[in-house]
Design goal:
Elements lengths: L1 H15 L18 E7 L4 H18 L4 E7 L15 H8 L4 E5 H7 L11 E3 L2 H10 L3 E3 L2
Parallel strand pairs: 1-2, 1-5, 2-3, 3-4
């Protein structure tokens, strides 16, 4: 009897647990009205580099690549994300580029660390200042996320 009672309580508990999906804010994301998302990465730890790529991938999975315009701005030590000889990130960066994610490198950081454009994953966009790119993106309606 006690076992049946415990089983019933467990079943009731499972029925109470509900999974709520994220509700879209209006206007809902679409090809004509994509979410505009800009990320930044400033650290070079393996965890930080893996995390930014994972977060970007998760956002793309949730919204769908056609419903998002995304760019990742790398400056300071985060520029390591875009090194073409970084075997842990270069293939993932390239894969995200295939779904039109923009990767932006800070020219000031490149000068400071003596990095040449050919040292970056092909397709990386170099701007004068990564921080200014973030600011101008936000002023243009992009949502800034620092994971």
């Amino acid at each position: 009897m006690k076992m049946i009672k415990n089983f019933t309580l467990i079943l009731l508990s499972l029925c109470i647990i509900t999974v709520a999906d994220t509700e879209y804010a209006d206007p809902k994301p679409s090809f004509e009205n994509p979410r505009l998302i800009v990320f930044s990465v400033t650290e070079d730890s393996p965890h930080a580099l893996d995390h930014i790529l994972s977060v970007a991938n998760n956002v793309l999975k949730f919204y769908g690549a056609d419903n998002v315009n995304m760019k990742i701005v790398a400056y300071s030590k985060g520029l390591k994300l875009l090194y073409n000889n970084n075997i842990s990130t270069a293939p993932r960066v390239d894969a995200l580029m295939q779904v039109d994610v923009e990767f932006v490198a800070c020219g000031n950081t490149m000068t400071t660390y003596k990095i040449k454009e050919e040292d970056l994953v092909e397709g990386s966009i170099v701007v004068t200042a990564g921080v200014v790119e973030l600011l101008e993106s936000v002023k243009s309606g992009w949502t800034y996320i620092k994971p």
